[in-house]
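We close this part of the discussion by returning to an individual protein. The encoding preserves chain order, so positions in sequence and tokens coincide. The sequence in question and its structure tokens are set out directly beneath this paragraph:

===
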Amino acid sequence: MNSSSSQTSYLAKWAAVEQLGPAARMSLRFFFAILLAVTGIAKLIDMAGFSEIVRSYQSLPDMFVPPAAWLLAVGELALAGWLLARYQTRLAAIAVVLLHLMYLGWLVMALVRGLQLGNCGCFGVFLARPLTWFSPLEDLALVLLAVWYWRLQPKGTT
């Protein structure tokens, strides 16, 4: 198979995936809305504990830790609501991509700096999971799903 036909084959497969359009778009919208609602609520339930997790990343001055923790938790809930409202869907999808890219970068920076965290904070304090190199892989998968969700949004619509 020459490179032209393999490229055509790849494009045909991608076109077939994009034909899933409405069903995939709805599934991904609900997936991200539920994920963000659950993680946001889990963080809000114990904000003092979640603030300590944010502090453990050693990436913000202490005075900014509580507001940042609140911003993350409330931001996740707001984004979940935005997804469910189906308002400006392309912009909401970009927000999902950017949020997960930020989390991915935050996790990688902590690992590169050699931080040993007993809880990555992904689900607040209740589902404590240590920060490992698997953690950013999970976020990378979420970034890829979020990019797919964004690509499925009709262009020129809200």
The mean pLDDT is 87. The helical segments are 3-18, 21-45, 47-56, 65-85, 89-112, 134-151.
